[in-house]
Target: Citrate lyase subunit beta/citryl-CoA lyase
Amino acid sequence: MRSLLFVPGDDKPKLTKALASGADVMLLDLEDSVAQDAKQAARETTRYFLRDTIAKHERPRLYVRINALDTGMSETDLDAVMAAAPEGIILPKSTSGRDVERLDAMLSVHEADRGIADGRTRIIAIATETAASLFTLGTYQGVSARLVGMAWGGEDLSADIGSSVNRANGEFTEPYRFARNLCLFGAVAAHVAPIDTVYTNFRDLDGLRAECEEAVRDGFTAKLAIHPAQVPVINEVFTPNANEIERAARIVGAFETAGDAGVIGLDGEMLDRPHLTRARKLLERARLAGVHA
Model:
């Protein structure tokens, strides 16, 4: 996963258009982008779209963002969409690893009822949307084999803590950088993909690019998107380039040649085992993106 594109689940034209966006994952949304009185229509539109699309070979992975577990709507959402076997569920406002465990159990029941292979449906948790959730970002490790990613979000967090803005001069303010960093550490500790939040000004592609480059620098491997125009920028920045791949391959090769060495020299630089770990991670990202040196 590099790009994950939110699309309102009640808007069939946007859903159809998003198929050609190039996004790695489409996030069919039943939560924030759908008005309260349109929830049932969104469930039906999403279910029919999944049924019509899931068998296509050339398509993004299809995930559904359900409503939060404490809304009383999440089970109704799952009843509607699991019959069409989406590849994953996005869990918003996750408060701890226990919420993922709860969703895991719910999905197991739906899979069994519908003849879907046990554990097929993956989970991405949006794990920083309330103040309380920031204190539990270390609780996701080992909670579910379904969990493949953790994302952070600043908009709902802003509403929860009552801040007037979450950015100043285009940059996230300190409370939100704190949430971002904790999510990064929590995801890595849980051995799942750390996913950067949306860049809400979808017309500012230069600003998006800068934020993507910062996210890659810091260790994020994917980014949420809210508009198809954002997808090409995200895919480009989150795909290792030829120079990076070549450098990583040389580092791995040098360590292999050196045997069990803890430190090697390459191009006049001393490299130790953390450099090898980073090189292997980059090569794995390149492999998953289908890119070779």
User: Anything to note?
Assistant: Residues 251 and 266 are 8 Å apart (CA to CA).
